[in-house]
Amino acid sequence: MRRVIAGLILCAGALALALGAQAAVRHIAETGRAASLPFSAAVEAGDLIYVSGNGGTDANGQLGADISSQTSNALDRIADALKKAGANLGDVVATQVYITDPANASAMDEAYAARFAKNPPSRTVVVTASLAGGKPLVEINAIAVRRGVAHRAILPKGWQNPPGPFSYAEKVGNTLFISALTARNPMDGSPPPDNIGLQTKTIMDNLGALLKAGGMDYGDLAAGRVWLSDMKYYRDMNVVYRSYFVRDLPARATLQFHLVNPTDLVQISTVAVKGGPRHAILGAIGADGKAGKPNPNYSAGMVVGNRMWVTGMTGETADNKDDVTSQTQETLTRMLRVLKAGGFNPAQVVEANVYMRDIGQFQQMNMGYRQVFQKDLPVRTTVQASNAGGSLVEIVLAAGR
């Protein structure tokens, strides 16, 4: 009997070690031309694999001739990174696609669909003025599940199938990855109203239907991104957006991008997580360690279980208005204070999205970024955007363990 008990203890200990190893954050380094840049090709944390943004170059660094070949190249690079983590494109549950010309959307879709013929991931597509290097036409990042982890598409009753190669939402365990929703009617495909308030309401109502179909509600939203065609809509969008929450709004970034369809004034993409423990960092954390005043539209950070999302932040001060290196360092310093308040550390940051007013200052941004992330590098996507308030850089972070 003692031998049996001892054996069970040993087995339990081995299982605990195995689960601990799986829960640890593992970084898969970039190779080739990107090896000198401050990000990982992929990062594993829990059951998820995060993959950096990949542009239109192939494994030899050659840029594809058109949007179709560049899209294929980007997905090939993502597949390569996933392979090192023991996964493949069939395990992808969410992507963000940045294109430089809305006229390329259809051809991008065709090349993209060829790689996701069955159960395509949730997806966001926006138009950026420029990508790093100035020549790529597309950049794609991804989140995947470990090989063998189940995921399924969510389609509310009465909704038509999505009008492109994506799922409205992908459910993985207690997590729902939701595509960037527009105000088009998902039941009949009718166009959105030409009003930011009505578009926001339609999107939030549609989001509620998706959440319900996935067994969740607005209180389960952990993080979101609002993609506005013009920042002039910011206030009116927020009036509607915040009315859907009782307390503890999700972490969020609000960004100005051109949208593929010119009738769309706003898109909203989100991540929802059922259960907890759940903890919102309501206000930004000052240098003195004290929490600032809560924002009525979002939490500074949101912790759910073993994951955390930090709201998009900037780092402009009176002394660094024209210095992207300093603004990048200051932005990350502010974000890491929020991260610490949520019980996470820099080594547990798994994903960074960097939005620059001028992508031509990419190397200067990297100088500031390297001062904060010198090892344990998260995956990263860097694109050009019209940042709020004229700041030179805005960054969004996610962490896991």
Write the layout of secondary structure elements.
Blueprint: H1 2-23, E1 26-29, E2 40-45, E3 48-54, H2 67-84, E4 92-99, H3 105-115, E5 122-127, E6 138-145, E7 152-153, E8 169-172, E9 175-181, H4 196-213, E10 221-228, H5 234-241, E11 251-256, E12 266-273, E13 278-281, E14 301-304, E15 307-313, H6 324-341, E16 349-356, H7 362-372, E17 379-384, E18 393-400
Parallel strand pairs: 4-5, 10-11, 16-17
Antiparallel strand pairs: 1-2, 2-3, 3-6, 4-6, 7-8, 8-9, 9-12, 10-12, 13-14, 14-15, 15-18, 16-18
Helix pairs in contact: 2-3, 4-5, 6-7
Main traits of this protein?
401 residues; 60s Ribosomal Protein L30, Chain: A; 7 helices; six-stranded mixed sheet
How would you explain this protein's 3D organization?
- Helix 2 runs parallel beside helix 3.
- It contains seven helices and 18 strands.
- Strand 2 and strand 3 form a beta hairpin.
